[in-house]
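User: Some background: our group keeps a shared notebook of sequences we're curious about, and every so often someone picks one and asks for a predicted structure to add to the entry. Today it's my turn. The entry only has the sequence so far, pasted here. Could you supply the structure so I can complete it?
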Amino acid sequence: MMRVPIAAGLGLVITVAFFLAAIFAPLIAPYGMAEVVGDVWEPASDKFLLGTDNIGRDLLTRLIYGGRTTIFIAAAATLLSFLTGSILGFLAAVLGGWADQALSRFVDLMMAIPSLIFALVVLSVMPVTVGVLILVMGFLDSTRVFRLSRAVAVDITVMDFVEAAQLRGEGRNWIIFREILPNALSPLVSELGLRFIFMVLFISTLSFLGLGVQPPLADWGGIVKENKEGIVYGIPAALYPAVAIAALSISVNLVADWVLNRTTSLKGGRG
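Assistant: Of course. Here's the predicted structure to add to the notebook entry:
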């Protein structure tokens, strides 16, 4: 029977709780996302468990809906970055030659520009919608996934089982998806958790700077921005989303570390 370490089990419970809250936000949130239900920065009470925000909206409701937006955008952008980066990285390793050099140099060029600055420039001239945010974040992060997947795939392509598949006349799709991908899962799974957390921090940073999720939608970075002035007066409204970001980051990393330890490392391969 599979035994789950205490730390991984705790991380799994917290992670699942965050995702369930995001999925069922309309059912568990006590009020509407943009509904003004009280005075400005009311303290926690039976009516408002975490108090109200800077314009009188229920803070718990904002956190639940903010988590839904943050997790959805981060998950979608992570999926996009892995689909794009890993496939291109595997393809570059299999093709080699000028194709590998062209893709690698383009990725090097993109990585030379800080991601946050690049995103701010792009978003300043484009309509800031959820779809645009996912595309920009996924494209920028795919360069990191490309570097990792290419480096892993280059090591796998020189192994005997890949050469045997090539001698059998297998095509590139077979080599990539049946030979390279199964043996690259271990480092990719580990990186998946890290990239997801990076996306959570990325979208929160963009929203805090005013170029992320736009009102009336809520996300954790935007909630911090809306309530940051309250910190001066000892009002903790801006701290709750920060705690949520930290809790999600730690829990996902605990789960990713456990999954990494359970997956087969790159020692042999398919026979």
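Suggested note for the entry: Residues 6-262 form a domain with the MetI-like fold fold (CATH 1.10.3720.10). The two ends are 27 Å apart (CA to CA).
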